[in-house]
Predict the 3D structure of the following.
Amino acid sequence: MNRLFRYSFSALVAALLAAGCGGGGGSSNTTAAPTTPPPGALQPGGSGADLGQVADDQGNAVTVDFSNALDINDNNQVVGFAAATAGASFKAALWAVDAQGAATVTPTSLAALAGNTFSAAFSVANSGDAVGQSAKGAQLVAVIWKDGAAGPEELPALSAAGNSAAFGISPDGSGIVGEAFDATTGTTRAVIWRVAADGAIAAPQVLPTNIFVKLTADGSLPVAFSSALRISDAGVIVGEVEDGEGVLHAAVWEPGAGSAYTPFDLRNGGEEGSSALAINGAGLVIGESETSGGEFVPVYWSKDATGEYKRTELAAAGGAGGVNSAGRIAGWETSAAVDNAVVWNAPSLAKATLFTSSSQAYAINDNNLVVGRKGSVGFIKLVE
């Protein structure tokens, strides 16, 4: 199957390039989504705000043709990307907002590496350090913008050739996760970059995928692909692994002694595939699964008393993008082929529908500010 998350970070980058814009554990029981909305649903606060401006090369705010808001930290800094005019290269952007979600300062343009035009920011730490990807000639490479600075720093490569991307940075800024091409295997691998107290960034460490190898009568089928998407302050990493038969597995990597990581496979036996997309400090994992009938379903996983990850469906169809410390989950429900941004409250499954027009929510911070995309423009909205 194809990579599952329809707004998957790597799928986003592939779409940008196609448009010419770039230069051992397991899951256990499943709890079905309720057939009727639960009482005590959350309430969206206010009308919300469009993130419809970015900074041009002179630092002036300009109205955008397209923008997308992908992550928000607890200091209310939002990152994503935008195109000022139709057909222009996407540029990473940082917006600062107040407690109600209104923009407070001119947005910051997070530049690509020198001599290039494409950039996109995917995650932001509480310090303001943002990570993402920049064009580097014919390559796309993982970068960090330290403290919201306009100039990015390329992260150490796994191999000189091939692409890399930084999809997540821990809230405390000590770990960066993503993917990088490995020339020794010819595949893209899930990796972590560790950040020292002085800001030095170590070479990427490949995360283990041995439990996802398929054993067959003709010999084992190696993992085709792996990617790390988010990391918590505790160092727990979530992402996805595609096995040798093309099946996508939601994955968790838990840190052990030294630099060791233990992988966990969250894919449920009844699924066509699954992907783990975010994690909060309490270890609540959220993501998306595909049923045998081809329906995409938003889900979360939490550990039970035996240490097994238990899977709970949030809705009959849709996706989940982010989760905060209180267990509020940002995502969307799909009805009649239209996505509507929502926030669920785990484990009660109380929900707030943010918009009744085409929209998706990708992240929520501990101040209950939600970011995502509504139509062709990024949004921010408070959920009370």
